[in-house]
Write a structure and sequence with these properties.
Blueprint lengths: L2 H12 L4 H11 L13 H4 L22 H4 L6 H13 L4 H19 L16 E4 L2 E4 H11 L4 H9 L12 H12 L13 H29 L2
Antiparallel strand pairs: 1-2
The structure holds adenine (ADE) and zinc ion (2 copies).
């Protein structure tokens, strides 16, 4: 996701934290001025380095949305394994500095795993090589989902935020990064996800905006459930 998607997920997850998880998040983030789950959600994109460049996505084999670690992430350098590793660090008795960094990765990567094209196919780099025209501009399918559809939403992000902010606390739940990636991939292979032509019609937006909203909301809910489980 782009910045607005990640920030929204951080904001919506924060209000679903249990008091215990919330106070530990606040304690870890207090070392940085004005840090909130929303404000730190984009940090992982700002520190992009060759070491972590592949942590933001996973590419299942074409036509098969399964995930197998040895086949799809042998070196551990993909979103599924990176997230599992960072959750383990956050859960551990590592120094606060290391756990704070892990928390920022977890906030970011749970979000990315829910962007369908972050579990798309290698051949077109998750839609990055699929040019489209949308809202009067040239872009590509990956950016359309990362941010263009969010920024151009009728009702905007505020309506989405208001609607989603009625969610209650998230029950602690074991994180399932591989399952979230498989879900994302299964959206990518649905009929019509890749538009018939290169022009994004209103009918595409009407069809896929509810899916986009559901992925953002799920990401927030699972992020909160993950933190409620990890920081109990
Ligand atoms: N970003 C860069 N390469 C990518 C890929 N193969 N899949 C998804 N996102 C990407
Ligand atoms: Zn992206
Ligand atoms: Zn990312």
């Amino acid at each position: 996701w782009g910045a607005e998607g990640h920030r929204l997920i951080g904001e919506l997850a924060e209000i679903q934290l249990t008091p215990t998880a919330h106070s530990e998040v606040n304690r870890l983030l207090a070392a940085e001025p004005d840090a909130t789950m929303s404000s730190v959600a984009t940090w992982a994109d700002e520190v992009r380095s060759p070491q972590t460049a592949h942590w933001h996505y996973v590419n299942p084999p074409l036509g098969d949305c399964s995930y197998a670690r040895i086949r799809d992430c042998a070196d551990g350098q993909c979103s599924v394994e990176a997230l599992s590793k960072q959750i383990a660090v956050l859960k551990s008795k590592a120094p606060d500095e290391a756990r704070r960094k892990a928390l920022k990765w977890v906030i970011h990567l749970v979000g990315d795993l829910h962007q369908p094209l972050h579990a798309g196919f290698k051949g077109d780099k998750g839609g990055n090589l699929y040019q489209v025209r949308a809202f009067g501009r040239g872009t590509h399918l990956h950016s359309l989902w990362d941010g263009v559809m969010i920024r151009n939403r009728v009702g905007g992000i505020d309506e989405l935020r208001r609607d989603a902010s009625t969610a209650g606390l998230a029950a602690p739940a074991t994180p399932r990064p591989a399952a979230w990636a498989v879900e994302s991939c299964k959206i990518v292979i649905k009929t019509g996800f890749y538009p018939g032509g290169r022009f994004i019609e209103q009918s595409y937006i009407d069809r896929w905006d509810p899916v986009l909203v559901a992925r953002l909301k799920s990401a927030a809910q699972r992020l909160a459930a993950t933190l409620n489980d990890t920081l109990r």
